[in-house]
Amino acid sequence: MAVLPIRITGDPVLHSPAEPVGAIDDELRTLVADMHETMHAAPGVGLAAPQVGLPLRLFVYRWEDEAGVVHEGTAIDPELFISPTRIDPLDEDEESEGCLSIPGERFPLRRADRAILRATDLDGDRYEIVAEGWLARIFQHEFDHLNGVLYADRLAHPYDKTVAKVIRKKSWGGPGQSWMPGIDDLDA
């Protein structure tokens, strides 16, 4: 497994819709393992393939809820979503959010409190998960990445102006910029 560089806002792969995943093979399994290692090194609770420079509809996550239950790779609650096709927000909740592609920054963003996600696992089986609370937020955030949307694109005034100033100040916003979890200190 390897830690991959995380693209920073402005890279075209972060601002374009991702393509469906093709074959589920050893190369994809290696990518998934590398994405998990990168997410843990960052540290983050989710990571989408576009964030590591690949325009694929795929994301991983790992999250521990308030009761200390870790949500990860089981048949019922996998930590990987390949070619998700739908997310249905059912209710809204306002919380602060951050993104590994805009490292070190957090802003309030209104998201649905519940979401339904349908996807495919590494065995090629389709499944559906109804998520609530923080897990629903993670799913929506990562699903947005697959559609070329960063959380900063959804911020309301005045936060949209503030994040734009931060991006300009840090000279982000162009292609090819990235940071390496575990090596670079960007307050992510």
Main sheet, how many strands, which sense, barrel? 6 strands, antiparallel
The best one-word shape is globular
Name of the top-level CATH class: Alpha Beta
**Separate helix tally:** 3
**Any idea what the CATH architecture is?**
Alpha-Beta Complex
Q: What would the average pLDDT be, to the nearest integer? A: 84
Number of distinct beta strands: 10
Distance between the termini: 21 Å
Corresponding CATH superfamily: Peptide deformylase
Rounded to the nearest angstrom, the radius of gyration is 16 Å
Summing up helix and strand content along with how strands pair, one would put the structural category as alpha+beta
Count of the domains: 1
What can you tell me about this protein's structure?
This protein is an alpha+beta fold and 188 residues long. It contains 3 helices and 10 strands, in the order βαββββββββααβ. Strands 2, 3, 6, 7, 8 and 9 form a 6-stranded antiparallel sheet that branches. Strand 4 and strand 5 form a beta hairpin. The longest helix has 16 residues. It is globular and about 45 Å long.
Task: Explain briefly what this protein structure is.
By secondary structure, the chain is α+β, with helices and mostly antiparallel strands. The protein has three helices and ten strands, in the order E-H-E-E-E-E-E-E-E-E-H-H-E. Strands 2, 3, 6, 7, 8 and 9 form a six-stranded antiparallel beta sheet that branches. A two-stranded antiparallel ribbon has the order 1-10.
List the helices and strands and how they pair.
Elements: E1 6-7, H1 26-41, E2 46-48, E3 58-61, E4 63-64, E5 70-71, E6 80-87, E7 91-99, E8 102-120, E9 126-132, H2 133-146, H3 159-169, E10 178-179
Antiparallel strand pairs: 1-10, 2-3, 3-6, 4-5, 6-8, 7-8, 8-9
